[in-house]
Every structure is written in structure tokens, then in C-alpha cells.
Amino acid sequence: MEKSLLRDIGLTDGEIVVYLALLELGQTKVWPLVTRTKMQKSAVYFCLMKLVDKGLASYITKNNVKYFEPYSPEKLLDFLSRKEITIAKQKEKLQNVLPKFISRVNAEKDKPGVRVYEGWEGMKSAFDDVLVSLKPGEEYYVLGAYTTPSVTERFRRFIGTFHTKRVRMRIPARMIMNEGLKESLGKDRERQAYTEVKYMPAEISTPTINLYGNKVMIGIYSDNPVITVIESEEISRSLRNYFDILWSDESRVYHGYDGIRKLLEDTLNYREVLFIGGGGYVADLLPDYFFGTYAQECVKRGIKWKNATWSEVRKSAITKASFVEMRYLPKSFGPKTPNVVWIYGNKVANVLWTKNPVVFTIENKEISKSYRRYFEVVWNLAID
Length: 384
Known about the structure:
This protein has about 375 residues and is of the alpha+beta class. The chain folds into three domains: about 1-110, Winged helix-like DNA-binding domain superfamily/Winged helix DNA-binding domain (Arc Repressor Mutant, subunit A); about 115-245, Endonuclease, Chain A (2-Layer Sandwich); about 250-380, Endonuclease, Chain A. It has helices spanning about 1-10, 15-25, 30-35, 40-55, 75-80, 90-105, 120-135, 150-170, 180-190, 235-245, 255-265, 280-285, 285-300, 365-380; strands at about 55-60, 65-70, 115-120, 140-145, 175-180, 195-200, 210, 215-220, 225-230, 250-255, 270-275, 305-310, 325-330, 340-345, 345-350, 360-365. The protein has a seven-stranded mixed β-sheet with strand order 3-9-8-7-4-5-6, sandwiched between helices. The longest helix is centred in the N-terminal third of the chain and has 17 residues, at about 90-105. The N and C termini lie far apart (about 45 Å).
């Protein structure tokens, strides 16, 4: 009966076999599922990625190996409600079967600190978690917002539905958006209750970060959206402080290559500089200065750089610098972007590498500590 019901709500026979095995095993690599299901490895992997896309499973990457984990079986109700063939009787049957599914879940499995949602169904599961996690009066924060042009209107409709539910639940939100979105997403939000919106200059870009409860959601909104959620009270609290500093405009902005040189000179006062998404722009665009005076000073002072970045950066000249250690992010983090986060001492700098670069800096011990924790998470997910 269980398999028949899962088939009725839209899962294939292969997905059903893999899903039931995943419930029993909990967090696992692919091979134990191959052994349990007696299916080909390629077929098991295909079914797992379909379950991820449907919001029924997630995965994390450790040492370049994916570990899959089922979401709570209650997610089947969310999946069912998104199908046009929703029938009330099917929901009632599913609710009766859920306890059996839940009993199969390995209650002792370790909960990952990082979860990845892929696809539009996965993204809906991620945003549904916001509404489940927050109570009326608890605040929701949004810093930055960017979509690829091909999905802007689809995302606008999607996020509009989410915010309508949020307002209905009386969950207040504060948002800092790029000024370039003022006439689209900005106007949409400004007209809603329980919502405040401010704008940063158009030339400043930050990753899209959503904060709620003890969770940090980082989104890449493209044809195949990817959402990464980090669950950490310390990181979430510190990023809220970072948000508050931006909200109150307690920050500094530098422009052009003179601003980049000032930033580089400032880093010479610290033994370590950490980067999230460093694209090798300094070495490629300022080679004489970087490999000359700056590199000599770094070696002389024992300064080390650690860069968690995109695989495309393997071809950059920066990989030749002796004081730079590189690790490369999984493809799920999306393509290379012009925005780079620098962390050194008690300072955090967001650098946007455009024709006229922009450096956006904040000095705050707690925020710097939070970004270091975030860097550690990313660094441990990356590979040499």
C-alpha cells in the first residue's frame, strides 16, 4: 500500500525504492543504497537527485563525496500540495501512512550543519522552512537580492507568493536591496505590510543572504536554483549584527583601484587573510603591484592567504603566489561571481570587481568572528 500511494502522488518506482531505503538508512553515501536497493549505481544516483529536486531529500559534500539524507516524511504533504492532481483522499491516506515512514527514520543520525536545496521545488522547501521556523513578531532579514535575467519574472512571482504568506502570518521583515531592484522587487515589497526596505548603491553587490531564527540562507537564483542553509546560532546572530550596521549605515566605501590598493596595504598589518569566492582579480588586474611589492612584503612578514573559491580560478595567476592556499567549491555553489569577501583581523570587506571596483568595509569583532565561522564551513566543503 505504501508503494502504491507514493506512486499515485507522482514518485516513480525507482524513486520509491530509493526513498524508502533512504528513510531506513538516514544520512548515507550512495553505495549503501546500491546494496540495499540492488539497483545500478547510476540509477540510484539519478533517483536521489530527483528526490532532492522534489524537496524530499538533501545532501552535503564531505571530501568530495556526497552524503544524502531524507527530509522528514511530512515533506510529502508539501510535495502533494504542489501537484495539480491533488486529491483530498490522497492527503488523508498519506497522513495515515506517515507514522510508518517516520518510524523507519534512523533517529540517531547526525544532523548536518549545512543543507543544500536544488531546483524550484527544493527552493520552495527552503522558503517553507522560513515560515515554519518563525512565529508572529519574529523578524526576517534579507541582505542583497540577485537573479539571472532569464528567471527574474519567475522568481518575482515565486517570492511574491512567499511574502504574501509571511505577511499573513504577521512576520515582520527588514530588507536591504541593491538600488537596481527598486523598480521591481523593491516596489513589490514596499507596498506590503510588516515590511521595511532600504537600498544600497547600485555599484555595491553582496551575496543574497536571508536570516531567520538560528539559520542563514544563501541563495543562487538561476534556471536551476541552489539554496544553501547553515544552521548556527552564532553565525546567524553575528550576521544580524552585520545587517544592523548596514541598516544604520555604519560602514566605509572605497572606489577604484586606489581603494583596492588601500585594502591590500591594510591587510599587510595582519598575519592571515581569508577569502570567500576570491576570483584571482588582484593578481590578474594588478600583476605588477601584487607580484612585486605586495608579494615581497607578504613573504617577508609571513602573511598567509586562504581562498575558498570557484573551480574556474584554477587558471588564474594567483595560484602561483607562494603565500596563497587554494581550495575549490563544489559546483552546487554556482558559477564564479565578481563579489569577493575578505576577512582579516576584526574586519570584513566586500569587494565588487567591476570596471571601477567598489570596496565596502566594516570593522566589528563579532561580525568578523561570524564570517570566520562561515569561512570554516565553506573551506571544509571545498577541495584542494
